[in-house]
Specification:
mainly alpha
Length: about 325
C-alpha cells in the first residue's frame, strides 16, 4: 500500500459519522475560514498603509543571503523534528531515528489547513507503519509543538528584556505577549497538568483513559537546549532574510531584536489556532515590531520574504521526505 493510500485510509477513519456530525464539522470549518479571512483582511489593510510610505529605492536583493536563510531554517526545524522523535520514543513508540524526522517534515504542510489537525493525522498515518500507536503519536505531537512554541516565546521574552538599544513604545506589550505565551504553555506542559491532557487525548483511541508514559526528565533537559538552538537558527534565518533585502548590512546590535520578533511572530501564530500556519499573524507581529527600527518598507518586505522562504523550506523538505517514504513503500511492496 502506498503512502497516499495509507493517508486516505486514515482520513476515512477520522471522518465524523452521521449527517449531524458532518454538518457540525462544516459549520466549524466555515467559522474558522471567516475568522481567518477577517484577520487576513486586517493585516492586508495594514500592509497597504505601510506600503504607501515605502521608498523602494532603499530595497536591494541578495539571493545568496536568501539561500543562507533557507539553510538556517532547514537546520533549525530539523532539530525540532529530532526532539519530536525522542518524545515519541519516551512515550512508548519505536526508536524512529531518521524516519521520525521524515514523518515530522511530511506532516508540516498540514498546519496550513485551518485548525492544524492534519499535522497529527499525517503523523499518525506514517508512524503507525512503524508500529507506533496513534495515541502515542497524538500525545507526542501535543507535547512537542507547545514545548517548541513555549521555548520560542521564552527566548523572545528574554531577548526583548535584554534589548537596551531600541526604545520601542510597544516593548511592554511585546514582553507581556511573549511572557504570557511561554508561561501559559509551560504550565500546561508541567507533568501533573500534561498527564490530564494526555488522558483526554487518549480517550478517542480506546485506551480507557490510560495515557502513554510521560516524557523523561532527561529528554526535557536535553530537549530545551536543542529547541533554544533551533530558535536561534530560525532567528538567524530571519536576520539573513532582512540582510538580503537591505541596502546596508544589518547591525549586529539589531540581531537580538530580529530574533525575538521572529520567535514571537511564530508563537503568536500558533496561539491563533484558526489561522493556518499563523498566516497574517506572523506578518502583523513582524511589521508592527520592526517598522520603527527597519523602516516600513524593509519591515513589510522582510515579513513577506520570510513567509516565502520558510514556506519554500517546508515544501522542499516535505516533498523530499514524502518521496523518500513513498520510495521505501514501493521497494517493500516489490519484495516477495
Amino acid at each position: 500500500m502506498s503512502l497516499r493510500d495509507r493517508l486516505a485510509q486514515w482520513r476515512a477513519q477520522l471522518e465524523p459519522a452521521g449527517d449531524a456530525k458532518g454538518r457540525r464539522r462544516w459549520l466549524s470549518l466555515s467559522v474558522r475560514l471567516v475568522i481567518a479571512a477577517l484577520v487576513i483582511a486586517g493585516v492586508g489593510s495594514q500592509f497597504m498603509k505601510l506600503t504607501e510610505r515605502v521608498d523602494w529605492s532603499r530595497i536591494e536583493f541578495s539571493p545568496w543571503e536568501l539561500v543562507l536563510s533557507f539553510v538556517l531554517y532547514l537546520c533549525g526545524m530539523t532539530l525540532v523534528a529530532a526532539f519530536f522523535s525522542r518524545v515519541v520514543k519516551d512515550m512508548g513508540g519505536q526508536a524512529l531515528r531518521r524516519f521520525g524526522v521524515v514523518a515530522w517534515w511530511v506532516s508540516q504542510l498540514g498546519k496550513y489547513i485551518p485548525g492544524k489537525a492534519w499535522v497529527v493525522v499525517v503523523r499518525c498515518g506514517l508512524l503507525s507503519t512503524k508500529g507506533v500507536p496513534p495515541a502515542v503519536t497524538t500525545v507526542a505531537s501535543f507535547y512537542e509543538t507547545p514545548m517548541m512554541v513555549a521555548v520560542g516565546a521564552a527566548v523572545a521574552c528574554a531577548l526583548f528584556a535584554a534589548d537596551t538599544k531600541h526604545d520601542l513604545a510597544a516593548k511592554p506589550l511585546l514582553l507581556l505577549m511573549s511572557g504570557a505565551i511561554a508561561v501559559g504553555l509551560g504550565l500546561v506542559l508541567t507533568p501533573w497538568a500534561f498527564a490530564k491532557v494526555a488522558k483526554v487525548l487518549s480517550l478517542p483511541f480506546g485506551r480507557g483513559g490510560d495515557a502513554p508514559p510521560p516524557v523523561r526528565a532527561r529528554t526535557v533537559l536535553r530537549g530545551v537546549p536543542t529547541l533554544v538552538a533551533a530558535w536561534l537558527l530560525n532567528g538567524a534565518s530571519f536576520v539573513a532574510c532582512v540582510s538580503a533585502l537591505s541596502s546596508a548590512p544589518v547591525p549586529v546590535s539589531d540581531w537580538p531584536l530580529l530574533i525575538a520578533a521572529s520567535g514571537l511572530a511564530v508563537a503568536a501564530g500558533f496561539v491563533v489556532v484558526v489561522m493556518p500556519g499563523g498566516l497574517g499573524v506572523r506578518e502583523w507581529v513582524i511589521m508592527s515590531t520592526l517598522s520603527p527600527v527597519l523602516g516600513p518598507e524593509l519591515a513589510v518586505l522582510s515579513a513577506v520574504a520570510l513567509r516565502l522562504v520558510w514556506l519554500a523550506v517546508e515544501l522542499v523538505a516535505s516533498a523530499g521526505s514524502y518521496l523518500s517514504v513513498e520510495a521505501s513503500y514501493r521497494r517493500l511492496s516489490r519484495q516477495p
